[in-house]
Amino acid sequence: MFSDSICSFTHKLTPREHFFHLPPVHFSCYVLSIFLPGKVYIYDGLYRICDTWLDIGKSGFSVYKYRLVRSPQQPEMGSSLFKLAGNMKLNPNCRSGLVHFDLSNGKEKIPVYLFNDLDSDRGPMSYSYTASPIYPAYGLWMGNSGGCDCVSGCSLGCFCMRRNGGDFPYDREGVLVRGRPLIYECGSLCRCPPTCRNRVTQTGVKHQLEVFRTRESGWGVRSLDLIKAGKFICEFAGVVLTRQQAVLVSMNGDNLIYAAQFPHRWMEWGNVSNIIPHSGQLDAPCLSPLEYGIDVSRVRSVGCYLNHSFVPNVLVQFVLYDHENISYPHLMLFAMENIPPMRELTIDYGLANG
């Protein structure tokens, strides 16, 4: 059953002079297995085989071993960034560029770091922080058409699932099953607990986010944690204005973001329901025209520091849970792909290309 290892390309390895004239290039993956249920593979770059030899393995048989040399002029190894981010989480003060330990001032469950090792700019500290939108005192229907009776958590066929087209918006790990125009999460009239799988975005930031100074784009956002594809990141929040209010505010030159300007990147998110048992076709709820703007000139959340990209790794998903006006949904940010630590988070603001 077991035998010595046979190298299938031995003819390329001998004579040794001939082997070293070949340009074999391989890539190495550092395996991080603590993220269940599967392993996470981190790309570490391109490597060149510089030597090979036979050795006795753990099973007592001969195995081929290789000495690799990393090719020059490559970005820093992914495994090194993983380890660096882990050390930064354990000891935030190990970096001289840490400006503030918590930009949210306790409004997020996990502190939001402020980091700048490029210059003396402290701009984000001049803004008030909000974890959720500040709605106008009038003009917004805050009523509720009802809630579910799921004491231990939502189940298929319950009131909230019917509002979402008959299926769960998220899987049991909190991963977005599929993008849709609008998600109805459980609200204040629902009997389910805060741990219900249909309250994903209401539980706040779960990753160690950091607002940092970039060389090209001012302030940006990155995470010290791995963010898995489909996971909730944070909310894009500020002072919510009606369209009429937004027109007046824009005349003052204030920073204003219209909810309707975000492209429907949720349509690009893969349909995970294809691999989930008993998941059928979705009759998704519709989204009304978005009639509001968000003033971020004085008050903002960490989501407002994400930079623009035409190839973003974060999408905007519209969510309702605390009111019934479908023209004023929450702007929730989800990962479009697996995002490793220290990689900048970006969204598409709907800006013209070029």
TrEMBL record:
Q: Which InterPro entries match?
A: H3K9_HMTase_SUVAR3-9, Pre-SET_dom, PUA-like_sf, SET_dom, SET_dom_sf, SRA-YDG_sf, SRA_YDG
Residue ranges of domain Pre-SET in the record: 146-204
Coiled-coil parts of chain:
none
Query: Mainly localized where?
Result: nucleus
Q: Which ranges carry the YDG domain?
A: 1-70
Q: Which compartments is it annotated to reside in?
A: Chromosome; Nucleus
Q: What GO CC annotations are associated with the protein?
A: chromosome; nucleus
Q: Where is the SET domain?
A: 207-350
What UniProt keywords are attached to this protein's entry?
Answer: Chromosome, Nucleus
- What is one Pfam family matched by this protein? SAD_SRA
Gene Ontology MF terms: double-stranded DNA binding; histone methyltransferase activity; zinc ion binding
- The name of this protein is SET domain-containing protein
